[in-house]
Write a structure and sequence with these properties.
- This protein has 663 residues and is mainly beta.
- Among the domains are: 211 residues, Spermadhesin, CUB domain (Jelly Rolls); 88 residues, Immunoglobulin-like; 79 residues, Immunoglobulin-like.
- The chain has four helices and 48 strands.
- A six-stranded mixed sheet has the order 1-11-8-13-5-3, with no helix packed on it. Strands 4, 6, 7, 9, 10 and 12 form a six-stranded mixed sheet that branches.
- Helix 2 packs antiparallel against helix 3 and helix 3 packs across helix 4.
- This is Putative secreted protein (Por secretion system target).
- Pfam families: Por_Secre_tail.
Length: 663
């Protein structure tokens, strides 16, 4: 257990490592910031001054800016006391307010008569924090020093001329967290991160063993931290690299926290091995990798590192490769020899047409629909999902299914939950197909980097937002006060490869405006436009920035004049490898519906192999018996309500859609 030296109580803290490589670009650009890295060695200058960003005016001559993080290497040194070297780290971005300095003693080997002194302050007149000598250096390896304000290191003496035997890592920042790695800490500047962002905050670089070797030489997996909409730290989780052939430099060499930022993206048809999507091959590799990640929970650095190698081998080599029997890749191949067909049930979580997903705490209820079906019947399939519901939220009733504990057995085409809450807030409800033979290959969530050069690789984790089993999730919200406006409808559709949002409302008394929010995972949102209230209650917005991702989610933030607000239900549009997915238009419908393709054009009749419509009890109420007419599908004989329409295309693609009939 390593010792921690701190100037006050432990706070949450973090450091960043990013792994660089070339890959495709994503639409989110990395921020332009004044930070940077430092590599030094107690060189020729008697005293160096380092600042994390721009050097403030009035700083000592020769001060260096952009030294947010760094490494000190000092092998082969022979410095007398009279010529001792000082390095002062001043953690300030503006010259007036100060953050902290974190020093981590990774590797130390001193000859006799050697001293390393650590002071709080800008010179040797400051408070002595610790003195590391030839007689005690071995016991100091792995220690951390958390210092408020400036820190000064003073060095003199001799070190062996052996590469990488004396390494100190430093970080600066004003947010302190504990990383994933056995109590190790890190730092970040709040001004250097964005709202709702993920940052890699630590690796697995280990300290020096008594024999001179590192306790663990593999730097991966990494540790990812999430910061909320107010840039407050929320959590950390272990993240595994899924680009085996890409570079992974030691942390502190190049990137600093905030220089690269990640966001979680939902994926479909994910090309895990980067050679073009092949369903049988890529889905099997994903299933094996998810199994490997699930085995890493609670394991040591060494085992996690071995599992990382197993992930790389699984990703890079053929699914039929005969690995060494003791390797983690071989264990994954044995544990997941094949995957079922179909790979998971067809299911989703969404709101009924008249549900916003938001209501008043204690008195209001929210309904959630779970359409569920299997595209083909295979042995062992069930219609049971496990519900993950946060504390304070209760299931008041269920239609189309029965609930026993957390297990929901679905008995109709759509099961509907009616939820209430005794607590205020926004919550995620999950439905998990919790069968060990099925893996989450169709709803995989991947950390994708912002767009910079060089690009960082993608990462994968299993945790709060990404489960190993097939799952779906939805956000619900309970508020203290009544909602400022009531939506009559809100729909998203694709026209000429643009997202077209349309909605209409009622009761806009004292109402101000709508904020349109967009997301890639239906959990982390960004504002893209504002639409003022009008007298008609009818609105439309076109989003043309959708060309580079697979799925986008939209919601409306409805703001009253007193700044109270509520959210609409979530709508989404999706891309797949063949273009845009099918959409129904109009929806809700009163007489005819049309199937639209990627360009918003009516789908040719020869593209549809089968089509059926079921009511909420699972009974088939319509079945296609002839080619789809250019006049559309006649639903005038259906009573008002919700239905599920199943469509099979001639290329074998199966999709299930919610259809609302209203008159």
């Amino acid at each position: 257990m390593k010792k921690i030296h701190t100037s006050q109580n432990r706070f949450l803290l973090f450091l960043a490592i990013i792994y660089s490589f070339s890959t495709i670009s994503y639409s989110q650009n990395c921020p332009s910031l004044p930070g940077g890295h430092y590599i030094g060695s107690f060189g020729s200058s008697s005293q160096e001054y380092l600042f994390p960003g721009t050097v403030p005016s009035g700083s000592p001559s020769g001060s260096q800016g952009g030294k947010t993080i760094g490494h000190l290497y000092f092998e082969g040194k022979n410095i007398t006391y009279a010529n001792r070297r000082l390095i002062t780290i001043r953690p300030t971005l503006d010259g007036s307010s100060y953050g902290k300095v974190l020093l981590q003693l990774f590797k130390l080997r001193f000859n006799s008569g050697t001293y390393l002194k650590i002071y709080r302050g800008s010179n040797e007149s400051g408070t002595l924090v610790d003195e590391i000598t030839s007689s005690n250096y071995a016991s100091k390896v792995g220690d951390e020093y958390i210092i408020d304000g400036a820190a000064t290191l003073v060095f003199y003496g001799q070190t062996p001329n052996v590469a990488d035997n004396n390494i100190i890592r430093f970080l600066t920042g004003d947010i302190l967290i504990q990383t994933c790695n056995e109590g190790r800490s890190g730092l970040v500047w709040k001004d250097f991160i964005s709202a709702n962002s993920y940052v890699l905050v630590d690796d697995q670089e280990g300290p020096l063993n008594p024999d001179g070797s590192t306790s663990y030489p593999n730097f991966l997996p990494a540790c990812m931290a999430y910061f909320d909409e107010n840039k407050n730290f929320v959590r950390v989780e272990t993240a595994f690299c899924i680009d085996q052939l890409k570079d992974a430099p030691t942390p502190g060499y190049w990137e600093y926290p905030g220089e690269y930022q990640f966001s979680i993206h939902s994926t479909t048809n994910y090309d895990i091995d980067r050679d073009g999507f092949n369903a049988s091959k890529d889905n099997l590799k994903i299933a094996r990798i998810l199994w490997l990640i699930s085995q890493a929970e609670g394991k040591t650095f060494e085992i996690k590192g071995d599992i990382q190698w197993g992930i790389w081998d699984t990703q890079y080599y053929s699914v039929t490769t005969n690995f060494s029997s003791s390797s983690w890749a071989a264990k994954a191949k044995s544990a997941v020899p094949t995957i079922p067909s179909p790979v998971e049930p067809t299911f989703s979580m969404n709101f009924p047409s008249d549900e916003t997903g938001e209501d008043v705490v204690n008195t209001g209820t929210i309904q959630v629909d779970i359409p569920f079906s299997w595209s083909s019947v295979q042995t062992g399939q069930t219609k049971v999902v496990k519900l993950i519901i946060p504390a304070g939220i209760a299931v008041q009733s269920v239609t189309g299914g029965t609930l026993s504990g957390s297990n929901l057995t679905i008995t109709a085409a759509v099961a509907t939950l009616t939820l209430s809450s005794s607590v205020i807030g926004e919550f995620t409800i999950k439905a998990v197909y919790d069968d060990p033979f099925y893996c989450n290959v169709s709803n995989l969530k991947v950390y994708k980097p912002c767009n910079a050069s060089p690009q960082s690789q993608e990462f994968l984790h299993v945790g709060e937002e990404n489960l190993a089993r097939p799952f779906r999730s939805i956000l619900v919200k309970w508020v203290q006060n009544p909602l400022p406006v009531r939506l009559m409808s809100f729909d998203a559709s694709l026209e000429n490869k643009n997202a077209v949002l349309q909605w209409n409302s009622a009761e806009e008394v004292n109402f101000s405006h709508y904020i349109i929010e967009k997301s890639t995972d239906a959990e982390k949102w960004s504002s893209i436009s504002m639409v003022s209230s009008n007298s008609t209650g009818n609105y439309q917005f076109v989003d043309s920035n959708i060309s580079s991702m697979t799925t986008f989610y939209y919601r409306l933030k409805m703001v009253d004049h007193d700044d109270t607000y509520s959210y609409s239900r979530i709508q989404n549009i999706s891309f797949d490898q063949k273009g845009l997915k099918l959409i129904l238009h109009p929806n809700p419908a009163s007489d005819f519906i049309f199937l639209k393709d990627a360009d918003g054009q009516t789908l040719a009749s020869d593209k549809v192999a089968a089509l059926s419509i079921m009511n909420t009890q699972g009974a088939e109420v319509y079945k296609l018996t002839s080619p789809v007419s250019s006049d559309g599908i006649n639903v005038t004989n259906l009573t008002s309500g919700m239905y599920v329409i199943k469509i099979t295309l001639t290329d074998g693609t199966l999709s299930t859609h919610k259809l609302v009939v209203g008159r």
